[in-house]
Fold:
Amino acid sequence: MGVIVLFLLSVYGWTVKEAAQGKLGWGHSVKNGLLHFVGFLDLFEKSVEEVKQLPKTFVTTPEDFEPVNRLQRDLWSLISYSDADKKRSVEIRNLRNDSVARHWQVSAPGMQPHHRVMHPLLLPDSSLVYSLNGFTGLFCVNKNGQPRWTQDSIAHHHGLNLGPEGHIWACSYTRDKRGRFIVYRGAVRLEGRPLNFIDNTLSKIDPATGELLYHRSISRILKENDLEHLLLKTPRSTDPYHLNDVQPVFKSGPYWQRGDLFLSLRNVSAILHFRPATGEVVRLLEGPFYAQHDVDVRNDSTLSIFNNNCHVNWQSNSSDHPIPEKRISMGDNYSQVLLYQAGEERYTPAMQDLTVREQIFTFTEGIADWLDEETVFVEEQNSGILWVLSGDEVLYRQALPSHHEGHHHLPNWTRILPTP
Structure:
């Protein structure tokens, strides 16, 4: 019996070899079927590797990563991350000692492994407002995690902030009749050719009920203020604006008024100073910042801008043309915390030597929150590193450890809180 089995295995092996070399002449269907059958183990191995691959909410921790913690004061943060049971956690965590003051475990219908709870918002009564970035409306739960309200006529994405009257301002998309959010709502014509694009919206929400109080198209804002030309400056015609932050003004001054908004449009590297009360774009800020995120009002004349300082689209060296031995160097680019001084129209990078020395860079996203006049918290989002910089010193450099060995959590726009 053993001899027969060995004989059959030998014949089978010879048949596979001959089929692979095209020597059997049995036709493509038989040959391809045979090879597909024997390739089952390769497919199985590939499937196992795909199952093993972690969602993009986890980042590989470099072997030489060295954390730093010289914080002398409590630093409370609102963070979100992916749990081991595939839900999401939101915590109020003290970065000084990793103590946790409050914890919520949240979920949403249709949640996928790659979905992120981005920039969750803590209300004054300790309720939590959150969404799955770009995929769901907003949910509000109380301090004990019990549902309060849901706003599902919009999808929240990127920035979420409280205004001076206590209302919520959100970067958003509008839900269509089929329940879809990211759709081509805008159109522009070039030489008679229609080009369709994603139109971002701006939403104001009642924090007590979730009611939509104000909802405005970015395209309409630009059109009503004779700024349609910004559409042509984008390298992404299908996603020309990519609104990523809405920052309310809390105190009137010589250059902006209480209730004004600063809107960051990444894909045209522009910031709009917008007045919802009148629909007016008071000023248009352009450069020297590129693919920027997180604009903050520091005082009555100064803005802080997290300048990603990079192309909107990822670039690589072209091999179409020869590269000479000597080239004109334009220097190394890293992300910046940029200060804009209104009136003087002056832009100054803060802690430039330190950010270059530490090679802080994130191609997308990123946050910079000032803790005092000399100290800034920075989320280097793509690498998952959190920083506190002061003068010429690194006070804090850390990644949030995860339940997967050798990996840390991808941060989701850490929010710094004054108190827990």
